[in-house]
Amino acid sequence: MRDAGGYQTASGLMISGGRPPWQSWRNQRSLQRADGLGGTPCACTQPRLHGLAVKTTCDWSFEMRYCGRPDRIARASRENAPGALPVHASLIAVPDQMPAGFAGSARPRRQRFGGRVRMAGFAIVFPMSAASAAELARPAAQAIPDTALKKPDWTVELGAFGLFSPKFFGAKDSKFSALPYVSIKYRDIAFASLDKGIGVNLFSANGFTVGAFVNLRPGREVKESRRYLTGLGDIDPALAAGAFVKYDYGRFFSTQITLSKGIVSFGDSKNKINALGLLEKTEGNLGTRIDWSADARLPLFDNRLHLSVGPRVSFFDKEYAESAYGITANQALASGYRPYKAKAGVAEVGVGGSARYRITENLSATAFGSYTRIVSDAAKSPLVTGPGGSKDQFKAGLGLTYQFGL
Fold this sequence. Notes:
Blueprint: E1 2-3, E2 6-8, E3 14-16, E4 48-49, E5 52-53, E6 55-56, E7 62-63, E8 72-73, E9 92-93, E10 102-103, E11 109-113, E12 116-120, E13 126-127, H1 130-143, E14 154-166, E15 174-186, E16 190-193, E17 197-205, E18 208-217, H2 226-229, E19 238-249, E20 253-265, E21 272-273, E22 279-280, E23 288-300, E24 305-316, H3 318-325, H4 329-335, E25 345-358, E26 363-374, H5 382-385, E27 392-405
């Protein structure tokens, strides 16, 4: 842009007199080093490539600044900078120490090579007073804040989900639940959510993550299915503690194994007398379970859509299996089911998947579902083989969440 006998660069620097600098200096990239900026890492805007920051605008302007790399400006391209304009930077050797008070900037022009748009740039370096350099550089520094690329320490996600799930372990009928969703993460160290509980990542390296957590195990209420649960009694919710090991192979595959053990039951933990004068078991499930899962992940549409699908396997110890599928003698008398002692072993196998679509930078919609087959000893429980049961279990949900950083 020409103004009063001079030319204004992309960053607002005024070059006085003569031809526009972009007619004399070509095939190089712009450089900004002014008093107060030299020798210190600068803030960058996306994308960040080997110390090079490219700031694009709708009129094809750009600015480049150092990011702690005083030795060179590295090559940048669309291939290794998804979402960036097709800007190509040639390698430029730069002295480790430039004199204070030197600054430069440029506006590129477009050239076509083989049907492809190439941005040709240039560098202008000229002396000025230290005060003037600092004054001219200040707007550019303010335009790229220090937090531009800094990942927030805290990530919060809030939303709501609608969920269809079996009424109890082994039920053929489903229930609908409207559930809030709250997830809080602190860096890659700690997490808390309504579905996963509260946990911490103890170790993370080479794709492996090891962590520990506590979460809430839901109970079972007779009122959810009086026709099939009357006489069996409620099962109180319980607090469980556990650990997990997860392995991520890039962005496309992950596998995880989780072990959890019930540690305390939320309730009176005593047997109650039912309407028939018979004892009903109400203690929460304090058994141990092991869950294994694997997921193949596929990002689509410039990472706006993420798909994942994979197998699921669950192992129950005797105590957990008894709580979920067992029927005591007293429960048999009260309910009409035959007594049944469940054993430890693999109880469930299946497949699960999800699809998450990013509507905006913060708003996302998620759909998920799973199919589980009750197997081995658990499949022989009267709760599964009876009129209210089924070996095939289905879950499905849909939700909307909003994520932001703190």
